[in-house]
Amino acid sequence: MSNNGSSSRLGPGGLDLTNTFFKPIQNSDPPIPSNRCTKVSVIGVGNVGMAIAQTILTQDIADEIALVDAKPDKLRGEMLDLQHAAAFLPRTRITASVDYEVTAGSDLCIVTAGARQNPGESRLNLLQRNVALFRHIIPPLAKSSPDAILLIVSNPVDVLTYVAWKLSGFPVNRVLGSGTNLDSSRFRFLIADHLDVNAQDVQAFIVGEHGDSSVALWSSISVGGIPVLSFLEKQQIAYEKQTLEDIHQTVVGSAYEVIALKGYTSWAIGYSVANLAYTILRDQRKIHPVTVLARGFYGVDGGDVFLSLPALLGRNGVVAVTNVHMTDEESEKLQKSAKTILEMQSQLGL
Q1: Is 153 part of any domain?
Q2: Nearest to 247 by CA among 223, 224, 277, 217
Q3: Final residue belonging to a domain, choices 134, 156, 177
Q4: Which of 90, 136, 214, 317 could form a disulfide with 60 if both were Cys (CB 3.0 to 4.6 A apart)?
Q5: DSSP state, 16?
Q6: Are 281 and 315 in contact (CB under 8 A)?
Q7: CATH number, domain containing residue 279
Q8: pLDDT given at position 171
């Protein structure tokens, strides 16, 4: 990875810290310089897709937003509703079509479209229906915007990110999923709430599957730069492991609770994905726990499995994966989570 401005070396002729903290993504495309307007396409104008589009619009992240959906009336209605707010928003061109040609020249394509689970339907059958849907979405997106970054939000996000990678033919750095970025935000909120501090001062990651086998990295949590668990141990302050597990299970169940109460989730995922879009399009080089190709990282092997790891993101997509500390127990749980996802992938026949 190249550096601009400040040096990555510590002391005269010292250690190069970049390669110590991060493990670069292999076989990735070089960054594509561009001075043109920024274009984002959102595929699927349901509750999640529109929350993402609205947040990107209000935060002035893109110069143009293209919306795509299979339902032309709803699509046009959503487009008009946003356009009518033009006097109150940053100047952004908003277009919409059922034809993927409207996405041509996109810098970032965000896919939220997906089939809903029918009563009594197996998870595998739902996944296979979503794979069939992706066969109609990903190839035309890749054809219209061959230099774009694909950001998958549809669930199950880990497996569908793998599907998008396979169907697009894009290099691994330009295909990622929203993964546990929102799970980690929920995690940080709960820890902050326990300690009565601002969630932005909490550094904490949920990794692995965006689902039941996710892994909370308690060993690397810090608040205001203070490693929490090692601090408690040094101060000889006792804590219950069950309390930690209860917090993690609350994170896992958060989406289910919101869905039970209001019927769907939208605002939190909208902010989460818009935050990812900002990091990528503005080349912020921030670390987010997102779905990436995990083979070769943290002992994950056995196949091309996609799951969430703390990754450095920039204008070229996934720049590197962070060498965050994990205990042996956390590493074993991550590898188990990878096997869970691989088992699902193996039944797709891709």
Answers
A1: yes
A2: 217
A3: 177
A4: 90
A5: E
A6: yes
A7: 3.90.110.10
A8: 96
Q: Confirm whether 3 is domain-assigned.
A: no
The single-letter code of the amino acid at 190 is L
User: Are 337 and 215 within one domain?
Assistant: yes
Q: Give residue-wise pLDDT tens across range 70-109.
A: 999 999 999 999 999 999 999 999 999 999 999 999 999 9
- Rounded to whole angstroms, how far apart are CA atoms 312 and 326? 17
Q: What is the pLDDT of residue 183?
A: 92
Task: Say if residue 282 is in the same domain as residue 170.
Answer: no
pLDDT at 244 over 70: yes
Q: DSSP letters of 214-279?
A: -EE-GGG-EETTEEHHHHHHHTT----HHHHHHHHHHHHHHHHHHHHHHSS--HHHHHHHHHHHHH
Distance CA 304, CA 292 (A): 10
Arithmetic mean of pLDDT over the chain:
88
* 34 pLDDT more than 80: no
Binding site feature residues for NAD(+): 44-49, 69, 130, 153-155
φ, ψ dihedrals at 133, nearest 5°: -65, -40
User: How many whole angstroms separate alpha carbon 178 and alpha carbon 201?
Assistant: 22
Q: Are strands 22-24 and 215-216 parallel, antiparallel or unpaired?
A: unpaired
Asked if residue 162 is part of any domain, the answer here is yes
> Angle CA(151)–CA(33)–CA(42) in degrees, nearest 5?
25
Query: What is the residue range of 309's domain?
Result: 180-347
Mean pLDDT, range 324-348, rounded to an integer: 90
294 and 322 fall within a common domain: yes
Contact in structure between 42 and 66 (CB atoms under 8 Å)? yes
What is the Cα–Cα distance from 312 to 310, expressed in whole angstroms? Answer: 7
- 210 carries an active-site annotation: yes
| Count of domains for the chain | 2
20 domain-assigned? no
Instruction: Say what the pLDDT of residue 13 is.
Output: 57
Task: Classify 347 as helix, strand or coil.
Answer: coil
Q: Is the pLDDT of residue 344 over 90?
A: no
Q: Which residues are annotated as a binding site?
A: 44-49, 69, 130, 153-155
Interatomic CA distance for residues 80 and 56, integer angstroms:
16
pTM of the model: 0.87
Question: Which among 136, 210, 248, 325 is annotated as catalytic?
Answer: 210
Residues 304 and 235 in one domain: yes
Looking at the structure, tell me whether residues 260 and 209 fall in a common domain.
Answer: yes
